[in-house]
Amino acid sequence: MSLYGVLRTGVSGMNAQSNKLGTVADNIANANTTGYKRASTEFSSLVLSSGKGSYNSGAVVTNVRYSISQQGPLVFTTSMADLAVQGNGFFVVSDEGGTPYLTRAGSFVPDSEGNLVNTAGYYLMGYPLANGNPNVTLNSLDGLERVNLANLAMSANPTTSASLGGNLPIGAAMGDTFQSSLIVYDNVGNKVQFNVIFEKQSDFDPLAPANQQWEVRIEGVDPTGWSAGPFTLEFDTSGQIVAGATMTPINIPNGQAMTLDVSTMQQLASDYAPLDPIVNGNAPSQVDKMEFGKDGTVYAVYEDGTRIATYRIPLATVPSPDKMTPEAGNVYSASIESGNVQVAFPGQSGLGSILSGALEQSNVDMGEELTAMIEAQRNYTANSKVFQTGSELLDVLMNLKR
Description:
Layout: H1 3-29, E1 39-46, E2 59-66, E3 74-76, E4 83-86, E5 90-94, E6 100-103, E7 109-110, E8 116-117, E9 123-128, E10 145-146, E11 155-157, E12 161-169, E13 177-185, E14 191-200, E15 212-220, E16 227-235, E17 241-243, E18 246-251, E19 257-261, E20 265-268, E21 273-279, E22 282-285, E23 287-292, E24 297-302, E25 307-312, E26 315-317, E27 325-327, E28 331-333, E29 342-344, E30 353-356, E31 358-360, H2 366-399
Parallel strand pairs: 12-19, 12-20
Antiparallel strand pairs: 1-2, 3-31, 4-30, 5-6, 5-9, 5-26, 6-28, 7-8, 9-10, 9-25, 11-22, 12-21, 13-14, 14-15, 15-16, 16-17, 18-19, 23-24, 24-25, 26-29, 27-28
Helix pairs in contact: 1-2
GO cellular component, one term: bacterial-type flagellum basal body
Subcellular location: Bacterial flagellum basal body
Domain Flagellar basal body rod protein N-terminal: 7-37
């Protein structure tokens, strides 16, 4: 047996317990840190070969593990910009230089430039919806931009699509008309009102039912007297629309070509009943607040009540989240052991949903950490006794020469 080996083994044991105390200290210090994931120290033995009649003491090797995939408890807040992931997945954030990271820390607030940034200074990333639905690259973070609220102030958007549902009475006589009014918006946000006029083109014979047709005209209410159509709607004998469900183009004065969707219109034995008028676009208005959908869609809600989808926030993950590399600020980067980043929208590909007005707390159990601290303290003391005993035996050996 080598007394120097005993000393080295004792030092190895003290170093291992020091590492364990280090992770315990980090966990306790970050017990109230949003999105923090606890670290733990695992031990494995290092055995040295020994000959007959002698034993060479080895050492202990430490391996730090992170419980990144373990979700912490959720707490609810009064800020709609506080975001939490319910289930699998991570927010994609970036630092000042644009380097992307993954995180569960969703305490975002607008900075001086309108970018949503969390308490660690990382910017929330999302896909802009200005040009329609984004094309997501499943294995790349390309195309993501900082979610910015400043660019949304005092915005006017022209109407490009509208829809109207309801019922047209099947018993109406040829020439009967019904009308409803809609408000749309031109290029600079002016309100433009028009009437949608439905005129029956034939009488209904219950003894010989056949497809029924309606003529649809669009007539502007303003003095210019603009109009569009006529369009033809056709319903089958069960009252379902079979032709003319989409009317286009309807050219709004000083606006865009609009599509009017009436695919949910029916022809049943009931009175005229227009339902569910929906129009996109809005008049000039300031942004009143932001809303975040569970599917990651970010809506700008204007003072006039108009709600416009502006961004869509994706979630990202890796095959082995616990193997990611932790970085300062509760962010993680992919490593060789964790696998490459995979991107999708909330609710897709096994990913969770986004909760607005909530934060994920750390997954640290204070009782467990205090117990681990006591164990590490006792074990450190025991290893120091081994070192002390080896040192005393060396003193005895040295004194044999005297």
